[in-house]
Amino acid sequence: MIQRENMLELTRRMIPARSHIDRIAGAYYDAEGYIDGTFNTHFLKLSTAEKTKNLELAKAVLQAETNKQLKDYRIPETARKPGSIWQLLDGIKESGLQNDAFLDLLYEMIGERVAPGKESYCFLFHGIYDVPVKGTDKQWQEGSEEVYKYLLCAVGSLEGEYEPGLPEAGFLYPAFRQRSTACEYINLHEKIKIWDICGKKL
Questions:
Q1: Which residues pair with 132 in a beta bridge?
Q2: Nearest partner of 6 among 190, 194, 185, 195, judged by Cα
Q3: CA-CA distance, 47 to 44, in Å (whole number)?
Q4: pTM here?
C-alpha cells in the first residue's frame, strides 16, 4: 500500500529551485499512435517556465489519489527475465535516460496502447533524490540515508501543437516505500489502460 507521505516528500521538492530531476525525455504521437517526434535534454537547461510546466506533469502522477488512482504493483521475481519490460526500465534508469535505443523501445510499446484518434505524449523524468535523515522526533537532520534513483513517466493527450494535457497514465519506478527504494515494486497511475505492457516480453 502506498503511504501518502512518501509521495508528498517527493513532490514537495518538485519546484524549479529544488528539483531532484536531472533529465527529461519524451515522445509525441500522432492520432494513430505513431511517433511524431522525440526530445531528450538535461533538465537544468530548460527555462524556469519550462521546468515549472514539466514538473507539474510529473507531480500530477504522484498526486493522483493513492491506492485508488495510484497503486502499488509488486513485480514477481519470475517476471525479471531477459527481454522483460523490467529489464528495459532498469536499463533506461541506469543510463539516466541517455540510451536512445532503450527509450525508442519503450515509446513504441506505449504508442501501441495510447487512445486511438488522439494525438498523445509520453514524457520520462529521471531523478536522483538524496533521502534526508529523519530523526525519531520526525525532524529533518543533516546527512543522507540513501540515494533514490528513479524513473517517472507521464502519458496523456495533447491539447495543442506539442502542448501536453494532464497525465492520464504514468508510473514511478522503482517505488518509493517507507522512504526507501523498493526495486520489487512499481507505482502505477492510469485512467487509460496501457499497462498490460508490464507482463509482455519485448
A1: 144
A2: 185
A3: 8
A4: 0.91
What are 3-49's pLDDT values in tens digits? Answer: 999 999 999 999 999 999 999 999 999 999 999 999 999 999 999 99
**DSSP state, 20?**
-
| CA within 13 Å, CB half, 71 | 9
* Angle in degrees, CA 172, 107, 71, rounded to 5: 25
What DSSP letter does each residue of 67-116 carry, written as one string? TTTEEEEE--GGG-STTBHHHHHHHHHHTTT--HHHHHHHHHHHHTTSPT
Bridge partners of 185?
A: 74
Determine the Cα–Cα distance for residues 61 and 58; give it in Å rounded to an integer.
6
Counting Cβ atoms within 10 Å, is residue 173 exposed (0-12), middle (13-18) or buried (19+)? buried
In degrees rounded to 5, what are phi and psi of residue 181? Answer: -70, 130
